[in-house]
Amino acid sequence: MLSRTRVALPERLPPWGVAILESHHADDFSMEWRTHPFLKLVYVLAGEGVLCLGDLEQSFAPRDLLVIPAGVRNRIVDTPGRPSSLYVLCIARRLIRFEPRCEASLGLGRRPRSALLANRAETRLRRLRFHHTHGADEASVPMVAEALGLLHLVAVASRDARSQNTNGPGGQKSTSASDMARYIAYLDEHFFEAEGVDAAAKQLGISRRAFTQRFRQHTGESWLRYTRLKAIDYAARLLRETEVPVTAIAFECGFGDLSTFYRQFKARLGMPPAAYRATLTGKPAADQ
Question: Measuring CA to CA, how many Å separate 73 from each of 68, 107, 153?
Answer without folding.
Answer: 9, 16, 24
